[in-house]
Amino acid sequence: MAMITTVQQHILQQQQELLRSTGCEASGTFSWLLSGITLATKMIEAKIRSAGLSDVLGAAGAENVQGEQQQKLDVYANQALLHCLGLRDSVAALVSEEDEQPVTFNRDAETGRYIIVFDPLDGSSNIDVNVNVGTIFSVLRRMPAELGTLEESILQQGFRQVAAGYVVYGPSTVLVYTTGNGVHGFTLDPKIGAFVLSHERMQMPEQGSYYSTNEANAAGWPQEYRSYLAMLRDGGLGKAYSSRYIGSLVADFHRTLLKGGVFLYPPTAKQPKGKLRLLYEANPLAFIAEQAGGVATNGAGRILDIRPEGIHQRTPLCVGSRREMEALTATLSGAAVS
Ligand code: AHM
Ligand code: MG
C-alpha cells in the first residue's frame, strides 16, 4: 500500500521534531485547531463543487427544497469557518473579512490562546464564473493579559504569526501552510476526504517569467511601477516577461509560489492605500513567501514589519521571487537596476 501523509499527521510530525530539537511542549492543541480549518475548507470545497447545481435548483425562488434560505458562497464560507473554529476551546477571537468586528469568546488567556484571522472566500468576483477562489488564514498567539489586551493581540505585526496558509479551490483543492519551518502543500484526495502531502518544503524559484497585476489600473499607479513593468517586458532582467492575472489573490499567489515571478497590487489613484487587506491577505501570504525564499513588501518596506492599526486595514502588496523583488525595490528607491 502506498504511504500517504495527511496534513494532520504532518503537523504532528513537525511538533514532535520541535519537541526533540527545542524541548517545547507539543500539546496537540495547535493541530486540533488546524483541524477546524481543514474541516471548514472541506465543507466550503464541497459547496463550491456543487454551486452551479444548487443555483439551478434554487433559481425559481430564494428557498431550496428544505425551505432554507439560499446562501451566497462567501456567507456560507464565513459561517463554516466561524462554526468549525468557534467550537475549539483554544480560540480567543475570530477575525473575518466578512465581519466588521472580531468575534470573541469568553475564554481565559491560558485556554483561549489563539486568534484566527481569515478571508473566507477570496476572489469573490470569480465565484459566479467558475474560476479559482480560495480561503486565506493566519494564526496569532494571544498575548498574556499583563502584556496586552485581546485587541492588541489581534493587531500584532505579521512576523509574529504562528502559522499561515491558504486553500485554493481549483481543478484540484490544494492547501498550503507554514508554521515557520518551511512551506508545505497538500492536495485534497476526494476518494478519502483528506489533504495528502503533495509538495514538501516548497521553494519559490529565484526568478520566474510572469508578472501578475491588474494593468487596467496602471494609469493611476506611481510612475515607478509603470517603469518597472516596462523594464520586465523589455528584457531588463534577461528575459521578456509574459503576463498572467486571474484576479483571485490566492490563485495568482499560488502560481507565483510554484513558478516564480512577481505579483503586484500597487497603490492606485482610486485606492491610494492599496486594495488588499493586511491582516488576512498580505500578512499570511508574505509569511509563506518568505518561508519559501521569496520577498513581500508594500513598496516601501517588509509587509511582516507593518504595525497594523485596524483589522480591515489595506496595503499595497508586492510579492514574488527574490530577483524580481530586488529589482522592484531598486526601481522604487530610484536606484539603477543592474
Ligand atoms: P475579495 O476579497 O473581495 O475577493 O477582493 C480581493 C481580490 C483579490 O483576490 C484579488 O487579488 C483582487 O481583489 C483583484 O482586484 P481587482 O479586481 O481590482 O484586480
Ligand atoms: Mg480577499
Please, could you describe this protein's structure?
The chain is α+β, with helices and mostly antiparallel strands. About 35% of the residues lie in helices and about 20% in strands. It has 9 helices and 15 strands. The chain has helices at about 5-20, 30-50, 50-55, 75-85, 150-155, 225-235, 250-260, 280-290, 320-330, and strands at about 90-95, 105, 115-120, 135-140, 165-170, 175-180, 185-190, 195-200, 210, 240-245, 260-265, 275, 295, 315, 315-320. The strands form 3 sheets. Strands 2-1-3-4-5-6-7-8 form an 8-stranded mixed β-sheet, with helices on both faces. Strands 10-9-11-15-13 form a 5-stranded mixed β-sheet, sandwiched between helices. It has a two-stranded antiparallel sheet with strand order 12-14. The chain is globular and about 55 Å long. The N and C termini lie far apart (about 55 Å). Residues about 55-60 have low confidence and may be disordered. The structure holds 2,5-anhydro-1,6-di-O-phosphono-D-mannitol and magnesium ion. 2,5-anhydro-1,6-di-O-phosphono-D-mannitol binds near residues 97 and 247. 2,5-anhydro-1,6-di-O-phosphono-D-mannitol binds next to β3.
